[in-house]
Amino acid sequence: MQSSLGKALTPLSIILVLISALIHSSWNFFTKKGNFPVEFFFWVFLWGVLFYLPFFIGFGVFPSLFLAPPLKLWWIVILSGFFETIYFICLIEAYRVGDLSLVYPISRSAPLFTQIWAIFIGEVLSPRGMLGIGLVMAGIYIISLKDFHLNNILSQSHRLTSRSYLLAFSAAIASSIYSVIDKVGVQIIHPVFYLWLINLSMTIYTGLYLALRKENPFWKVWDESKKEILIIAVLQNAAYFLVLMAMQTSKVSYVVAFRQAGGLFGAVMGIVLLKESDWKTRITGALILTLGLVLIGLAK
Questions:
Q1: CB 12 within 8 A of CB 299
Q2: How many other C-beta atoms are found inside a 10 Å radius of the C-beta of residue 275?
């Protein structure tokens, strides 16, 4: 499978990632609308673990699943789970203080950082791919503007120091790191097993974080939001499983960049369904982002 490090996006990869992006933006929409706390996602990750157990037991791969993988995989799971937990905590806190149509696209700006980290696993990008990633980043920046007046564009640096922007960018950096780690992980073990291990790791990390913080009781959140927890657990697992499948056959830099179609979906959902403002700049940015995605899809 190591040769897949050098492949561009295949038509199947593009379809998988686009479906994933739509699912991902949908559960982010529900997260913003419901204003769910971090405790909510502890239950999401826990159910992400429990969903798979009946199938693993039925097919006789549990608990032997813990004994088969090499030691290297456990370090990968520990690191990926750590950065994915940071991503979720930053994203949830950003939604508490910012709009979906602004926070979500910025949190999806991982391609710039992924391009840097991917160098360490031997990926080299084509000029067309780099241009596409550049347009994705430009589109995400424009989405964050209030309008196209020069004064507002020049003053954007002040807005980038706000709590919502910093949290969203922190989520993007964490996302870029765990994406590269996960690319290595799915070369070692099947994405279904890998995703289960990541859910287990995130359940432990999130549980430790909440045990130290001690704000909302775990059971109270479960009692109030059972239905939403189960829906988002299914959506979140389905979305990332499709991404991991795409990573098996394509460059992580292109997969992560093309996945930013979710930024377009998220902007539209925020503007249309949540009635958020600044729709002209956000739609313009989303269209530029889409052009970048097309170039990434055509890159070799």
A1: no
A2: 8
Q: Domain span at residue 290? A: 2-298
What is the pLDDT tens value at each position of the chain, 300 positions in all? Answer: 444 454 666 778 778 888 888 887 888 888 877 788 888 999 999 999 998 888 788 777 766 666 677 788 999 999 999 999 999 999 988 888 877 777 877 777 766 676 667 667 666 667 877 888 788 778 777 776 766 565 555 555 555 557 777 898 899 889 888 888 998 898 888 888 899 999 999 999 999 998 888 776 778 888 888 899 999 999 888 888 888 888 877 777 677 777 666 667 777 777 777 776 667 777 787 788 778 777 776 665
- Structural domain count, the chain: 1
Sequence letter at residue 42: F
Q: For CA atoms 210, 214, 219, 222, give the dihedral sign.
A: negative
pTM value surpassing 0.70: yes
Given a contact cutoff of 8 angstroms between Cβ atoms, the answer to whether 9 and 249 are in contact is no
Give the C-alpha separation, 86 to 8, whole Å: 29
